[in-house]
Amino acid sequence: MPVRKRPIRPPPSGRLHVSPPVFPTRSGTRPWTRDSILVEIRRRADAGMNVRIARRHPASLVRRAKEFYGSWPQALEAALGPP
Question: Is the model's pLDDT at 69 over the cut of 90?
Fold first, then answer.
């Protein structure tokens, strides 16, 4: 069944208002560096968080840690020492 489109009617002012497109922004993501990853892992460990479970942390942190250190456990070892 074809979808029936409604005609676009201009507002009473006579001008057609077009909203800008909405795209997801990346302004909330941090530029993770090797040092900032280690600092954040230590901060979370000091706050009593279980840092061993990767899915409890921001995906951007875990992804960059894997890029820099090869895996999440290796990043933890670099930050906290051997288990």
Answer: yes
